[in-house]
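User:
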Amino acid sequence: MKYNIESILQRATAASLAAVMTLGLASCSPKPSTIENLVENDTAKKKIVNLFGPMEKSKPNATNTARTAFDQTIGLAEKELALTVEYRTYTAENYQEKTYDDVVLDRVRSNMDDFYLMNPDTIQILGSEGRLADLSGLETAKNLRDVVKAANTIDGKLVAIPQEIAAYGLFVNKDMFDKYRLTLPNTPEEFMECCRVFKENGIETPIGANRWWLENFVLTLAYADLYNGGNTEAEIDALNKGAAKYSDYMRPGFEFLKELIDKGYIDAKTAYTYEAIEGEGPDFLAQKTPIVMAYWGAANAETAYGNPDFNMQVIGFPSKLGQMPVITITGYGVCTGSEHADDALDVLDIILSDEALQLYAETNQVISPSKNVEVECIPALTPLSNRVKDNVYVLGSNASMNVEQWGNTCLIVRELLNGATVDECMAMFDKLQEKAMAK
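Assistant: Predicted structure:
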């Protein structure tokens, strides 16, 4: 969900965002190493602001539209502020076994750069440590959608803002639903019935799944009421104080997922080995399976689901409140101890302006964080788009929760795929909550 190497994550990091739009970075176990700047900063010659991210600046003839769009917004800031934004780049070979998130944590804590592109779990950690500047005073912050502020506000401070919002949904083969006279499901019960009909009509695995994104079902059933019931802040406060248990919220989703596995609607063993889209994608495109899950951008990408030979629709995950998008928010944040923090804030105010975000959204066909920027989506995305516009969603990551959601839920879902019981999975959430409470 990029900034953006390919406009979104192709794979997830173990404790962070799985394929969210902005960082396609592989996960490894952290390994201590000396932090080094990988580029020289000759401040005597020109005014420079340093950005640390997963990409280099595009060459003039670059064909990667996501990176080109970002570079164009940076160009607006460079021209208006008469400065240069230097890209300091993460590459796995330079950092060996350290993940992108590990490196960002090290660099921010050492005040090495001015602003950063960060995954949700990193935003949560650094924001809680007070190392990220409050962006709520930026002019552009006034135009943000509520979902962005909800996801990236810690202790009353808005600590990160993205250039795009990643919305996850169910990609369905509408032709196969029509063949068996099935309406697109709204509730868990309707979804289960659709799977039953497909299975009984010879479709071996109705749901194509991978080891990253099944947590979307869980998060939807866990938090549909929390985010859409008008009592969000109070419920999160109760979770953070231990008055409520994360495991009680999570249990219905894990029980639902376990039932899908037990009835053969999901192949757990295969899903555990599949990378996102690379694994389940071919069967979906070949119309062997009617349902997969993916992020918004996959509907536009030719390398994903951008050109199917059937009527594809992208809908929300089933909940008792109807089809529910799951939204993850990455973001740019400014290091409070950086040498050029004020200049970095000025850069963000320009690249996150409605003018820059309109350019970015039109180029990449994404959901903008600004409520003033709307881009017409392809017909397949209309159902998901309408729910987002109606401010109906579940957050897959929320910096105000003291237990990180996306990565932890993903890892515990993998335990379920490997044969863990629902009770064992709930015990894992209880341990996470106990650890968070002990800090």
